[in-house]
Design goal:
With 372 residues, the chain is α/β, with parallel strands linked by helices. The protein has a single domain, classed as Ribokinase (UDP-N-acetylmuramoyl-L-alanine:D-glutamate ligase, 3-Layer(aba) Sandwich), CATH 3.40.1190.20. The strands form two sheets. The protein has a nine-stranded mixed beta sheet, with helices on both faces. Helix 3 packs across helix 11 and helix 7 packs parallel to helix 8. The chain is globular, with a radius of gyration of 20 Å.
Amino acid sequence: MSELSPELRARAARLASLPVVIGFDGFVDEMITVVLERKDLESFTPVPDIKTFGSLITAAAGHSSLREITVNNVDPGGCAVNMGDGLLGFGIPVDLFATLGDPVHPAFAEMAARCRSAHSWGDEPGRTLAFEFADGKLMFSAVRQLGDFDAAHVRGCLKDGAYAAACKEAGLIAMTNWSLYPRMTGVWRVLADEVFAALPEGKRIFVDLVDPSSRSGDDIRAMLETLPLLAKGGAKLTLGVNGNEANLLCELLGLDKAGNAEASVSEQAKRLRAALGIDEVVVHWIRYAAASGPDGDASAEGPFCAKPRKSTGAGDRFNAGYALGLLLGFPPRARLRLAAASSGFFVREARSASVEELAGFLERWERGEVEA
């Protein structure tokens, strides 16, 4: 796909006029490394992977245990914030509506200043302890305070008209993190009736559930029944899920699960789209991604990274890259390549890419110059 990079550069000037509205999760993230062995005050060996960490926990069963951690950063987090950071990196104007705190938590100050507009829709943000390992991450989130984010609360937030006005102008509307907001299904119904139904036909809506494994089957089924209602005004609805999330939905819907193989992931995207009755489904695993939608089915291999500098937020940068492709009208496989490159750049550089950096990464990837 050697034409993708020059075409991306050629279309990039449009992005300034294609704002994205994104909500609703804001979290304060503490990025943590677990110490396996400390050598001296300045150096230590980290616990390398989740399996090793699991063995340490298992060995402690039945008696007390102490394990040192290091808090590397306290970051603005939440999928809406992370995806918004990726979009801002591309030069896309962002209108952020999220649980940023009242007053806004200091962790979000820089992010809010970069957005075209930032609106706090919650008195207290969520909090996540993110334990990072070479093969993935374990995230522990405190979300009790997010129970206040319900239909009545959102109706109050809508009264100033800012969200509806931003959605009407937006090139894309993104909603992330259904799973950790226990009353989000009711919020979706309010938005479908009071905002999305009045939008021009063809408006793009992107939804990322975030891992729903902690929610009951009944809650997930109610959410899936509500999901198509977001598009009842004629919007084009895309659901983005990672491999574990896709398999969970397949199990609940009585569909075959997928393995981490390109053909298997592609079939999974098709099955989920048909079962859910929505416009498009995107499934991304560590090595492969696939999309199934009205403009065709596609799959693509990603630039795997064995030793990421940062993994928390990689999926959100994948979503930002996919949204970039949607905004600029690229076909499905090109959208997947942009998404994979956006995530691939992020895990290697620990920051979001600009359009020029993304184009350069794509070129190096195509030449085989991106290290795994």
